[in-house]
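ok so for the tutorial part 2 we go from a plain amino acid sequence to predicted structure tokens. step 1 is just haveing the sequence, like this:
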Amino acid sequence: MSERVINILISAFPKLLLYCVKVTIPLTVIVFILSILLALGTALVQIYHIKVLEKVARFYIWLFRGTPLIVQLYIIFFGLPSLGIMINAYLSAVIAFSLNYAAYNSETIRAAITAVPVGQTEAGYMIGLNRFQIMTRIVLPQATRIAFPTLMGSLIGLTKDSSLAASITVVEMFKTAQQIAASTYEPFALYCEAAVIYLLLCSVLTWLQKRVEKKLEWKRPDASNTTLKGVPQNG
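step 2 — the prediction. this is what the tokens look like for a chain of 235 residues:
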């Protein structure tokens, strides 16, 4: 690697990092939160079999899971203006990413909720809880444990897919790398540098996932701690 390329990478790194912190990370966080909220609502609509809304939810999931994310971005940013609907690039990215990831996350959440044993719900009714209390106090906490690994995988995927926002002129980290590459004629080195930053971000999320998973694990009570004091042990 020549000295010129090294100098370009050194000077480019603060700019890439700036747009990573300024645009890429906030975009990822905002989209993930919105997608989880929309996914939860879509999942509950299907679980409770709410008329009309259930059909709308299933159609929405079918549509957004069956079409490419890049196409959805282009339809919202480049296509809607032809209908008189003008949406700026950043908001277009938020809408497209949120709708796309919510379609996938809703199926994850729905599967996690239905995986909770029915007896848990029946027990809730037996002690006088209503449907809302059962869902929030009994079902969702257990479903969170089940869905967490898959949802974290979705977040990691979203972190990488955020680079697609560059295709609709959102100046995030990858778009910044493209702009610098265009002026320095060193696309390989700069794209590799951007890739390393994405890799570091995803590595941090993977590490965080493992830490949280350990805390969410079901822990069996220690037999030594459950033994009544003063009661003689067999043998």
